[in-house]
Amino acid sequence: MDTTLWFRRLTALFWLALTGLILLDALTAHRYRPEPPPIALGSGQAPSGGHCSGR
Amino acid sequence: MLVRRVVLVTGALALVFAITLLAGLRQGLLTLLGLGFGAVLQGCRFGFTTGWRDYIERRNPHGLWAQLLLLALASGLMLPLLAAHPGELVGAVAPLTLSLLLGAFLFGAAMQLTDGCGSGTLYKAGAGSPLSVVVLPTFMLGSFLGASHQPAWVALGGLPPVDLLRYGWPTALALTLAGCALVALLTLPHARSAGPWPRRWVIGAILLALLAALHLIVAGQPWGIVYGVGLWGAKAFAALGWNPAADPFWSVAPHATRLVEPIVFDVTSVTNFGLLYGAYAVSRWRAPVTTNLPSARRLLVAATAGLILGYSSRMAFGCNVGAFLGGVSSASLHGWIWFAMAFLGSILGVRLRRRIEATAT
């Protein structure tokens, strides 16, 4: 198969799969939570996200 | 060309708008920062893997120096913020465990075989590199499994975290800058002339440091990559029927919450999504991209190494971004230990890579 065509198909498949999975997850997961302030600095709240450092 | 650029910018705005709509303004802002990370990494070709390989193979220190500049600038911006806002802003601080030593070594070796570290794999996958697109699923699987086993690895023992901020941010910054200068000096006697320092790497270091500081301000925590990648794996397995209730990592807070919430609520995931698209947009800004496909053997080796890359990143409390950049710019000693061990691992990884490429031709 032509490598350019293969590359385009691979790229399209990658973005389709990623978008599809995000949408599927967003539609099926529990959707309600108290929204954090837009910026952590000055919010008075501790960050709640997970981090690679193990927190 | 104009139409393509309008489509690319519209895509970026649509991504930020959609995530803001689904998960709120903070997540939207983090997506925007992720777009910036991806655009800078791809636009400046700012790679940790290549920078280390250039030094190991050719004694060209330019890439390594750019990384040290990034560390110095990010520390200068982040340490005063962390010191002034404890509680609201939290650094990447981790213990000095056996798992850190082994995990960082394995990560350093694997990243030379995957041709990308944590950020490198993501931005190259976003830009459409076939090798990184193949690595991403195994990186995800490895990161998920590594997180699941992380408590057992940590239980093997080690020393508690060493947070230099306890001595005040001026001292912590002075020690961090001294560390950067020491590494730069150590590379000097072996450095071979390779022309002027490429401007794109200097610009990349400055922009990435600014984005890293902004990420800390918005998210309250340093920029990370692999937590989100592992979460994607956990979500995929949960969707296939895996029960995380008995898992020592995914059943405890805050990870258990992340698993049941939409993925767009996760800090690291939305910056990763932005990063992927930012790299994609920049790679196609000037012209459509074409590429040569690596051999099937090379793809298989990279995919296998991707599994190790993901797994070891969780043993070592992060990748080049979460542990190295995040750790050092938070004045945590584990960041420097991660660097030393990963660099040693890369020396092995470069040799393995050379052997694989020689047998492939």
Keywords summarizing the entry:
heterodimer, A: mainly alpha, 47% helix, B: 361 residues, mainly alpha, two-stranded antiparallel sheet, 2 strands, 73% helix
Give a summary of the structure in a few sentences.
The complex is a heterodimer of chains A (55) and B (361). By secondary structure, chain A is mainly α.
Chart the SSEs and their pairings.
The complex is a heterodimer of chains A (55) and B (361).
Chain A: H1 3-28
Chain B: H1 2-23, H2 25-43, H3 48-58, H4 62-84, E1 96-97, H5 98-114, H6 118-127, H7 130-154, E2 158-159, H8 169-187, H9 199-219, H10 226-239, H11 255-260, H12 267-283, H13 296-315, H14 320-329, H15 333-360
Antiparallel strand pairs in B: 1-2
Helix pairs in contact in B: 1-2, 1-12, 2-9, 2-12, 3-4, 3-15, 4-8, 4-9, 5-7, 5-13, 5-15, 6-7, 6-12, 7-10, 7-13, 10-12, 14-15
What does this structure look like?
The complex is a heterodimer of chains A (55) and B (361). Chain A is elongated. Chain A has 55 residues and is an all-alpha fold. Chain A is built from one helix and no strands. The longest helix of chain A is centred in the first third of the chain and has 26 residues, at 3-28. The mean pLDDT of chain A is 82. Chain B has 361 residues and is mostly helical. Chain B has one domain (2-360). Chain B has 15 helices and two strands. In chain B, α1 packs antiparallel against α2, α2 packs antiparallel against α9 (199-219) and α3 crosses α15 (333-360). The longest helix of chain B has 28 residues, at 333-360. The chains are: A mainly alpha (55), B mainly alpha (361).
